[in-house]
Structures are given as structure tokens and as C-alpha cells.
Amino acid sequence: MAAAGAPDGMEESGMDTEAETVVTEVPAQPLNCVDAEAAAGAAGEDSCDARGSLQPAPAQPPGDPAAQASVSNGEDAGGGAGKELELVDLKIIWNKTKHDVKVPLDSTGSELKQKIHSITGLPPAMQKVMYKGLVPEDKTLREIKVTSGAKIMVVGSTINDVLAVNTPKEAAQQDAKAEENKKEPLCRQKQHRKVLDKGKPEDVMPSVKGVQERLPAVPLSGMYNKSGGKVRLTFKLEQDQLWIGTKERTEKLPMGSIKNVVSEPIEGHEDYHMMAFQLGPTEASYYWVYWVPTQYVDAIKDTVLGKWQYF
Q: Which portions of the sequence form the region Disordered (predicted)?
């Protein structure tokens, strides 16, 4: 019966062959989709391992979701580039006219002036913009606590307004000079002689002939008015006013209300002038001042007629 099987510890030579045959003859099983993708991925990994680091990583296609997510994340990290501007409703009031506008709350005072220029035509350099005081050009509306519905007051004149005011003044001055040339000297007229005959005031300010000087920091004093009383002139440039002071009272006149200024040297005392400020439409409104030092005559005219502001 020994021939019926191999001795213990020995393998039969045909068993391996049969096993191999069995494995070989097992029919191939069809792969489902998941297995196919896994197999393809494994093959791709083996291929990449074989090629090593010599092959560069493939670039992401334009439509790759990861790339889009990266761009989106970049925008968020950039501080909200697409963030909406916070607007505030304002009422711009200029020249008795109201303009309703919307402007960004983070606009500066300088940018607000540009907006006002686009609405009114008023140049930024000639604007005074006020909200609880003068609006600083370098601060934002948010910083000065402007709220929705706030009223912004604007003061200023356009170039055309300035020219319209100055041109009649200059024309009136030229006409007055032409009339003066036709008449006898003012200082010979009876109405002026009674003042000039009193002589030069003892406390009159010194004069410098042939020289033009700026207005002094102190009032011009020691002069006479038409009634022979003492008078002084104070130029309040910050208020755009001329103060005419006498012993009895002080008249505070806006510079813009003075239509014209005329003057003439006093005969025999050419280093002093007699001067008139035209306060109304006719010569009857002249306010006369006598013994004005000649070096200040041009400065007075330029200051009152506004030339110092624009030239």
C-alpha cells in the first residue's frame, strides 16, 4: 500500500503543476468602474515612480476647482477688494440752493470739494466747506463724524461771479478818472477848501513821496473827514471790512459794498492825498478823507477794490 502515496515529508511533483494550472485557468473577472479607476491610478503612480523627479508636475487646467478656490482665497486675504463703498446722503447748500448727493463716507474733504465742483462749477480753491466748522481737506467724512442727512454749507464765488463784480468797479474807476481830468482840481472846489484851509493835522501820519508801501499793521489815523472831524481807517482783511472810525462812532463797511475809490494830491502838499469812498450809485454818496499819506494810496485802492485777492 506504500505505492498508493508518497512518504511523509515529501511533496508530490504533480501538485505544483496542478495548482499552477488551476490558477492559470481561472477565468478573468470583469472589473467594475471603481476597480478600473483604482487600477489606472496605481499604474499611473508606478509610472511616475519610474520616471522619478525628472518630470515636472502637470499644470492645473484653467477650470480646475482648486485653482479657482486659490484665487478666491487670495481675494479674501487681500482685504475684501470687492467690498461695497458705504455711502452717505448729504445736502449741499450753496448760494441758497440745495443739492442732494450721495458720497462715500470715506471721502476726504478734498474729494468732497471735487464733488461740489462737479455740481456747482465752484472751483475747489475758492470753496469754504463747513460742517460744524471748516471741513479739513485731509480728513474723511467718517473721521469728522458726518452722518446721513447732514447739511454741508458752502461759501464761495465762481470765476464768472468775480469777474462780474470786478469789471463794473474797474469801469467805474476809469470813468471817474476821465471825469476828474475834465474838472478843476478837487482841492480847489469850495466844499473841500473849507477843510483843507484848516491846514495839516498835527498828528497826521508821516508821508513818503515817490514810494508805494503796503498797508501798515496799525490803523491810518490823524486825518480829517468832510465835516473837519478826526477820522481813522482800519482795514479788517480777515473780515473783508473797512472800519471808518470817528470820535462819535465806527462804521463797519463790507469791502464789496464800496463801489469805487478816488483820490487826488493836495496842491502844495503833494505827499498827501484827499480820498473818497463811493458808498452808493452817485457822487453824493462819497465819504471824503483828507491828508492820506501818499505811500498808502495805491494799497488802499487795491485792498478795497479786491485786486489784492486775485492778482
A: 1-82, 173-205
